[in-house]
Amino acid sequence: MSVAPMVKAEAVHKSFGRLQVLQGIDLEVSPKEVLCMIGPSGSGKSTFLRCINHLEKIDAGRLSVDGELVGYQQRGDKLYELRDAEVCRKRSEIGMVFQHFNLFPHMTALENLTEAPIRVKKESRTVAVERGRKLLERVGLGEKVNAYPRQLSGGQQQRVAIARTLAYKPQVLLFDEPFGDEAALIGFGTHTGTVAAADDWDGDMKVKRVRCLAPEALEPSASFQ
Length: 225
Prior knowledge:
Blueprint: E1 7-16, E2 19-29, E3 33-38, H1 45-52, E4 60-65, E5 68-69, E6 72-75, E7 78-81, H2 84-91, E8 94-97, H3 109-119, H4 125-138, H5 154-167, E9 172-176, E10 192-197, E11 209-213
Parallel strand pairs: 3-11, 8-9
Antiparallel strand pairs: 1-2, 1-4, 3-10, 4-5, 6-7, 9-10
Helix pairs in contact: 3-4, 3-5, 4-5
C-alpha cells in the first residue's frame, strides 16, 4: 500500500527577473524521510526551501504539504492565492531553520523555544516550558535556558534555532544550511538544504530513509528526482 507524500513538488518554476532559479522541479518526500539537497551556492536550494513554506511564491507548478497546496487554493482548473491568515495557518505546520538562525535577541534560549507554541499553537505555558527544557537538554544546552543569544557562541545559537523549530512539532522541517561549517563533520558538505518529514510526532524524528541529491541534480532544467 503506497503512502501519500508529505511534501510534493510538481513542475515548480521560480525566477527572479531574467534569472531562472527553479526550472520544472519534481520531487516527493515521504513521511519519516529525510531529503538532503547538496550543491553549490546559487543552485536554488534555499529558494526551493522558501517556496515550500510560501516565503517565496512560485511562478508555475504546484507545491503541497500533507496533501494541501501551499499558499494556494484550487477552484476548477485555476489556482488562487490564499489570504495571509490562511497562509500563516499552513505555515505554522512547517518549521524552518534559517542560515542566520533569526533568534529573538531580547528573549532567553528557553523563551525562544516557548514563544511559538504558546502564541501560535495556544499551548499552556507549563507544557511549552517543559518541552522547551527537554529540547535544550537534548541539544546539549540544558544549562543555557536563561542565556540570551548574545551570550551564546555561534554553534550554540544554531542548536537553539534547531530546538526552537522542533518545539512546535511541525509536520515538515526545513533546514537551510543549519550546521554551517560544522556540516562537513557529519558528511553533508557546506552547502546543504534539507527537508525532513515527520509522521505521528512523538518528540523524536524516526527516520525511515535518507536521500541525498548530488550537485548535478541541481543543474538548471534538471529534475531533483
